[in-house]
Design brief:
6 strands; alpha/beta; Alpha/beta knot; 29% helix
């Protein structure tokens, strides 16, 4: 009955630590990682987490088996994609999974099949030469902020 973050192939230990810190800030209690994710006990992860490693539960498991056991119409699975639906125009629920994908390749095909809602953070850049994508830690912060804003205003 809560919002949880799911990490699919996050390779950079600094990104893992940053995501731990962001989740701690937004009150996310649980992070579920696949076995392709960097180790949270890597010194770079520990440092980037700024202590959040001790306050957020992290589980490494097989996501393809795990996600379907919990998702339903009241507990959806949101996935982050460059071509998803604009997060600022969506009716977001206050519980479910939010899947964040690999820094270079995004969410794997096997996990994509389990996603109920594809979401994206729209770019507001006006140049053809603007940044192609966001860092996964930054994107996690923006997405959690929007989910919590919706929850806060209910």
């Amino acid at each position: 009955d809560s919002l949880s973050v799911v990490l699919n192939g996050i390779q950079d230990p600094g990104n893992i630590g940053t995501i731990l810190r962001v989740c701690d800030w937004f009150g996310i209690q649980n992070i579920f990682c696949d076995h392709d994710c960097a180790n949270i006990f890597n010194p770079k992860s520990v440092q980037a987490s700024m202590g959040a490693i001790f306050r957020v539960n992290v589980f490494y498991l097989d996501l393809v088996d795990f996600i379907p056991r919990f998702t339903n119409s009241d507990f959806p699975c949101y996935g982050t994609f460059l071509e998803g639906e604009n997060i600022y125009r969506m009716n977001l629920q206050s519980k479910g999974f939010i899947v964040m994908g690999n820094e270079g390749n995004g969410i794997t095909a096997g996990i994509e099949q389990l996603v109920d809602h594809k979401i994206t953070i729209p770019s507001f850049a006006h140049s053809l030469y603007s940044t192609e994508s966001l860092n996964v830690g930054v994107a996690t912060g923006i997405i959690l902020s929007e989910f919590k804003r919706i929850e806060y205003n209910k």
